[in-house]
Amino acid sequence: MEEKMGIILADTLYSKEMRIDWNYSVYLPNNYQKGTTDVWFLLHGANGHQLNLLERIDLKEHLDKMNATDVFVFVDGFNSFYIDGPGISMESAILKDLIPHIEKLYEPQQKHIA
């Protein structure tokens, strides 16, 4: 079976909830077409950032080998545990800033958080 290679894009959006420029990365599958796939928001563990799953376990290589057809968004959650807390409104930023931003860019059929 022929392996189809996706690409990794690095991007930034301004988060009104956190009042910062917020980095994230995206895996776009080979032959991606807007509006035809699901989007997965991948959340790293504590003390990490959006590149952990790409650098530590080379998730891009795994997605390529699986011939993944979905879009994967690698979220920088800082050390927030993905909740709103003192100093950072991460849950609100994901719901109000990141998800709508990604929906406009990729028009997913469905959204998933993992």
Describe the structure using short key phrases:
alpha/beta; two-stranded antiparallel ribbon; 114 residues; 3 helices; five-stranded mixed beta sheet
Please provide a brief summary of the model:
With 114 residues, the protein is an alpha/beta fold. The chain has helices at 52-55, 59-65, 90-106; strands spanning 7-15, 20-28, 39-43, 71-75, 84-85, 88-89, 111-113. The chain is 25% helix and 31% strand.
Structure description:
- The chain is α/β, with parallel strands linked by helices and 114 residues long.
- It contains 3 helices and 7 strands, in the order βββααβββαβ.
- The protein has helices at residues 52-55, 59-65, 90-106; strands at 7-15, 20-28, 39-43, 71-75, 84-85, 88-89, 111-113.
- The mean pLDDT is 94.
- CA(first)-CA(last) distance: 28 Å
Secondary-structure class: alpha/beta
Number of strands: 7
Number of helices: 3
Please state the average pLDDT score.
Answer: 94
Shape: globular
User: Which ranges are low-confidence, i.e. pLDDT below 50, for 5 or more consecutive residues?
Assistant: none
Radius of gyration: 14 Å
Strand arrangement within the widest β-sheet reads 1-2-4-3-7
Roughly what percent helix?
Answer: 10-25%
Instruction: Encode the helix/strand succession as letters.
Output: EEEHHEEEHE
Strand content: 25-35%
Largest sheet, in brief, is: 5 strands, mixed
